[in-house]
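User: My advisor, Dr. K., asked me to get a structural model of this assembly before our group meeting. I'm new to this, so sorry if the format is off. These are the inputs:
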Amino acid sequence: MTDKLEKSGHPQGVSATIDRRGVLKGMGAIGAASVAASTFRINYARAQTRKLRALMWEPYLLPEVVKEFEAKHNVEFAPTFFDGNSEAYNKLRVGGTKDFDLVQADGFWPRLYFQEGLIRGVDYSKMPSTENFFPIFKPDRFDILVDKASGTKFGVPFCWGSYGITYNADGISPEKASSIECLFDPEFAGRLSANARFEENIALAGVLVTYRLGTRDKPRPDGKPFNPYVLTDEELAEVEKLLIEQKKLLLTRYQDNGTLFQLLASGAIVAAPEFAQVYRQLLAKVAEGEVTGDIRHTLIPKEGGLGWVDTFLVSSGVADGDQFDLAQDFINTMISLDNMKVIGDRTGCSTTIDLRSVSTPEQQKFFLMDRTEELADMFMFDQPSSPEKWERVWSNMQAA
Amino acid sequence: MYISLEGISKRYAAVTAVDEVDIAIGKTEFVSLLGPSGSGKTTLLRIIAGLERPTTGRVLIDGVDVTDLPPHKRGIAMVFQEFLLFPHRTVRENLAFPLRMQQLSKEEIASRVAWAAGILSLEGLEDRYPNQLSGGQQQRVALGRGLVAHPKVLLLDEPLANLDRELRQEMEVEIRRYQMQLGIPFIYVTHNQEEAMSMSDRIAVVSKGRIEDFAERSEVYDHPKTAFIAQFVGRSSHFNGTVSAVSSEGASVDISGVKLHVSRNANLKAGQRVVVFVKNEKVQLEARTDTARANSIDCRIKDIILRGAYAEYILDAPALGAELVATRPRSETVFTAGQEVRAFWSGDAPDIFPADKAA
Amino acid sequence: MTHKTKAVLLLGIPTAYLVLLFILPIISLIVLSFWKTESYHLVYEWNIQNYVTVLTEGAYLTFLIRSIVVSVIVSVLATAIGWIAAYAIWTYGGRFRLLLALAFAVPFFTGEVLRVIALQGLLGPVGLINGTLMKWGFAPVRALMYSNVASGIGLFYLYLPIAVTVIYLSLLNLDRRLIDAAKIFGAGGFRSFIEITFPLNLVGTLIAFALCFIPCMSATLSPRFLGGPNGTLYGMAMAQQFGESGTWALGAAMGVILFLFSLLAVVLIASCLDLRRTGFTGFGRN
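Assistant: The format is fine. Below is the predicted structure of the whole assembly, which you can bring to the meeting.
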């Protein structure tokens, strides 16, 4: 059963064992050995026919599309898969920019990549499919992927989602489920679950804490508008308290979508924050009559919610010219209406491309196609302001 | 009797290891089970020990039927060929083991261990581990472990097989002495007839799971009851022949044309095929003369082997078409290799058995 | 090939292997533990802060103590049950002994991940055990759902085969006739086990214990999938440092401390052990 679920799963939880920011394959940080290995690999690669090398999430690979693309350009598409942003980040930092042409990342990570010179700017005019973006994802509005100083665009978003609350209305009222408070409510002790990822747990608790404390409008540590990934020490201390209290209310922390699906489907829990994909899987099963329950999803809790955008990037190792054109053509192919429709159906993600012209009304509702604007109100997945401090909060919670 | 085996058999699937054995042993007897390897003598010992269950029959020790009792409830002790000392225990602890199992007091254990160490010359070795001892020392500890508990019977399974000859002979004397001191029966399994002869009161000769004979050691040696015993006990030469005549004084046997007289007739009939055994030490030698002598054969000395006080003459007897051996004290006339001599023996020297039963 | 060349090859290859795959990684781990991380960046600044953090922050000590308790319980149980299983095979296995011993190794053929997930299916709230209980109208056993008990069961299940195999191999080396000797000299079945069988297999037993205990201390999968919110163990917390939070230097320090702890445990056990009292000569049976 786990298998079946995962096929339709979002990359955020594709693997049963490892989540997206999961286990680093070895210690890239000190990876002299991996540098040597990658050098070797490049030399080897150069000797072969022309290649397009991608560092990506596996579920986004469409084999039939890749085949067609390879035939058209007479190239070989060579994907390498990763699970967590930090894993991809480390691969790039130890010389991977020469190793890969295309890279995927989510949320604010592309900005970090660009600042560190790991990726390069892209040319939307060479990718006509970008015309089909929902308005909110067009560069004039979606400035996450635009360098403010130079105006350079450095990424192409293709999927998006929230980190809302999926709940069973038979066990919790929609009114309660519309607030993050419900995830910390003793009334539901033993019938709640949460993700095992430390960043989103802390950020979501941070949204609640800052809402309660009213500290969002006060000057923020980074001098920028409020971002739940940038919290003060006081706020973090509150988050820690909140998470420790929450711990005894949780049945478990789910490691993968399969587990969460079972927990919700069996009625073992009534609510959990998630990427809306288990929600979609559950709705499908409810429609088939295999699962009973009034399954619903709060996209943005009243205190605010988290959201994410998955993005195609071009590595800084790609120079202007044929290879750059090839990489951009690949992105353009992938974000075409037809291919994005397939990706949406297979992974259960909402797309950045407006697919309403090729979707049924049910699909439009299912994939929230009329609600993309709400992403503007979400706080984007980001890198914790201090992973070291956040890790301490998480460890303290686990040990408490 | 003190120990009785009644109708003991042991069968493994198709193999009969012990076949209907009846033995009774007295309280102060030293008994050897003598037989070649695979004869079933060790199985018999293990049945007495309780390490094997007999398929049929029962075992009685001191009047009690112990057939169904496990080894540790039989009040016995055993000395093994491989010693089987507990490798993780010191000499002292090995000796104390049976006493601790009997839950004797600390003082009693200490004094008995000291006694055993004393009689076995193990003093000063008490705190060593078995692998720090020589083979002889390990053997002594194994023996001491058997004696110290004052068992109802001590079973010895080829205990000297792993020792060199000199040490073996020394130990034979000691073992016999301990047996007499303790006044308990020793049942001694061996394939070595010299060991059996040197220590035992009675010897049970075992072959193919059966007792061929169970008798005083001199009886077994001097009057073998079967051809197997004649062959196995002592050193002898043997010849195949035919009974030519039978009289009240014995029988005449024709061996390849040579006529021999045997004063025992063992219910023989004329014309019967027989095998005749002559023990080496009963064969005498003299220089060739023309005087006729009964039971004599002309021979040539092929080789001489010296064994201490004795000389072993390997003789070639063309008339018999066979070799025979004479063992003579070296105090007698000395012959030299290559010399033509005459071998002879008295009429009561040979043991004669029907050939169909010969081993 | 001369005897010497053979010796050099036979000893040299394992030595080279050890240096490459054990010593070098340990050294890099040690070096890393004296640096620090800042927002997924490694800062090459020598300091001992990571060790101070691990040894003074309550959280990491809690993980360590939790792990020790769970590991000791699991290893003791695995060794005890391993003894029973190995002894049964050794005594009653007959000609199927080898087959039976191998059967215990069968779970090794599947990955650890698969085995833990299978257990999750068995123990979880809708798993076989609780699912069946609830179907029959009984209350589910909460202790089995996402708890330290569940993660202990997982660890036990993962490492029992090691205990059985090691103890069985140790028993194979025991001269059964020593047990006969003990029985002859008055020891009953249980007594001869206590006096002879167990002490003579003490080294094997301790190796079995250590081979359960050490991986339990660094286990990540079982606590992660079965342990529930309060089930974070040391190994899992350590893996977090290398994975999610990118605090590699802190993780390395945790690793070094675990390594030293394991080493200390082994040294302590070894120093309490008089090899002579186990019949162990180091030179095989003599």
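One thing worth pointing out at the meeting: Chains A and B do not touch (no CB pair under 8 Å).

User: Perfect, thanks a lot.
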